[in-house]
Design goal:
The protein has 167 residues and is an alpha+beta fold. It has helices at residues 10-16, 26-37, 96-99, 147-154, 158-164; strands at residues 5-7, 38-40, 46-48, 60-62, 66-67, 70-71, 80-83, 112-119, 122-132, 136-137, 143-145.
Length: 167
C-alpha cells in the first residue's frame, strides 16, 4: 500500500515543490480547484460544483494502476478522477490563468495534476501529483491535500496565494 504524505500547511506545500518551477501550472490549478470547483457544505463535506463524471474542465477517470507492485494512491474502493491535463477535451474551459503558459509540447507546462476520490456526491480525498512520461506519475511528488490546507488556501486571493508560494 502506498504511503502518501499529507500536506497540512502552506509551508509544507511550498517545500513539496508541487507546481514548480515555471512554466508548471499546478499552484494555479490548485488555487482554482479549491476556490472555484469545491465548497464545504453544512456537514463539512467537500462538495463539487460540477460532477467530475461529467468531465467538465477535462476531468476524467484516473486508473490507479500498478507501477511495479505498488499503486500510486491507496486502494479505497472509491473511484478516482483526475484534472489538470491541459490537452484533454474540455480542459480549455479551465481559467486562462491556469492555461496561459501551456505550450502544447512535451515539457513541464503540462506536468501537474489533481486527483480526487469520489464518495457518492462528495470528494473523499484530494491529491496533487506530477505526471511524467506517457502514463506515469511521480510517486515521490504525490501528496494528499488536507481539508485544513484547502480551507487555508480558500482564504487567499489568487495573487496573494501565488505570492505566498513564491510564484
Amino acid at each position: 500500500m502506498p504511503r502518501v504524505r499529507t500536506l497540512n500547511e502552506l509551508s509544507q506545500l511550498q517545500e513539496s515543490g508541487f507546481g514548480w518551477p515555471w512554466p508548471r501550472h499546478g499552484l494555479k490549478l490548485l488555487y482554482w480547484f479549491v476556490n472555484k470547483y469545491i465548497y464545504f457544505d453544512d456537514d463539512n463535506e467537500m462538495c463539487w460544483r460540477y460532477d467530475p463524471e461529467r468531465r467538465f474542465y477535462g476531468f476524467h477517470p484516473f486508473e490507479n494502476r500498478y507501477d511495479g507492485n505498488v499503486r500510486l494512491l491507496p486502494d479505497t474502493g472509491l473511484p478516482y478522477y483526475e484534472v489538470g491535463n491541459l490537452s484533454k477535451p474540455r480542459a480549455h474551459r479551465l481559467p486562462k490563468y491556469v492555461r496561459k503558459d501551456y505550450t502544447g509540447f512535451h515539457d513541464d507546462s503540462n506536468t501537474d495534476r489533481i486527483i480526487v476520490s469520489v464518495d457518492d456526491e462528495y470528494f473523499d480525498r484530494v491529491y496533487v501529483t506530477e505526471h511524467c512520461g506517457e502514463s506515469n506519475y511521480n510517486s515521490h511528488g504525490t501528496y494528499r491535500i488536507s481539508r485544513g490546507l484547502i480551507m487555508i488556501i480558500q482564504d487567499y486571493t489568487r495573487e496573494d496565494f501565488l505570492s505566498e508560494m513564491g510564484f
